[in-house]
Amino acid sequence: xxVLKRSLKNLLGKETVIVMNxxxxxxxxxxxxxxxAMILKNVLEAKAETPVWKESTASTRLLSRQEVKGTVIGDxxxxxxxxxxxxxxxxxxxxxxxxxxxxxY
Length: 105
Description:
Structural class: mainly beta
Helix content: under 10%
């Protein structure tokens, strides 16, 4: 078993951050992978250099009668997605999402 396969197996069902070669970062639950691709569910996508992993909900009125509800993620370039399929050859970095402050900081 290769290093990548072993590491991804340990991350199955856990929140994981994946940074791609194009500078996009994805945080979601790793559900499945093979040698070519991986699938994340409940995903937030952001720029890798300035990720903001939180969301807020807002309502907007259209035509003064119809209310449309959606997800607004601050003022950054963040997208909320149900599911994402990522090609492994395009991945730059992978790690488990652990939002606690590391020891010594």
